[in-house]
Amino acid sequence: MNTELAEELNQQACNFWEAQDYPAALECFNRAISLCNCYPKLWNNRGNVLCDLGRYAEALASYDRAIGLKHDYHQAWFNRGVALKELGAYGNALESFHKAIAINPDPIYIHRKEEIWLKKKLIPV
């Protein structure tokens, strides 16, 4: 397991993701995971890219893997909720959001996530 190289690939993937080059980001995350598949941040980040690509079922599987590796990973729980919402599983999405808030009840975190949701227009009107 090469965690150092996996972290370098994670950073490269994040740079691609920020530049909205989602296919390149996904390729880097996949390579990083092939080197170190027990790193929850890689799975969570991979899920984020898959969400941006509209591949919500695959994103959900990545978030579930991240949560399986780190049960108190509030970001992965929140992101799982986003993927479930996009898949139309509103009740399960709400459960994931509640789990994220139970793990990290910080009002600043919650407010910031609400702003992100509204900006991405993820809340149905």
Automatic annotation (TrEMBL):
Gene3D superfamilies: Tetratricopeptide repeat domain. Keywords: Repeat, TPR repeat. It comes from the Bacteria. SUPFAM superfamilies: TPR-like. Signal peptide: none annotated. The keyword Repeat applies. TPR repeats lie at residues 40-73, 74-107. InterPro entries: TPR-like_helical_dom_sf (IPR011990), TPR_rpt (IPR019734), Ycf3 (IPR050498). This is Uncharacterized protein.
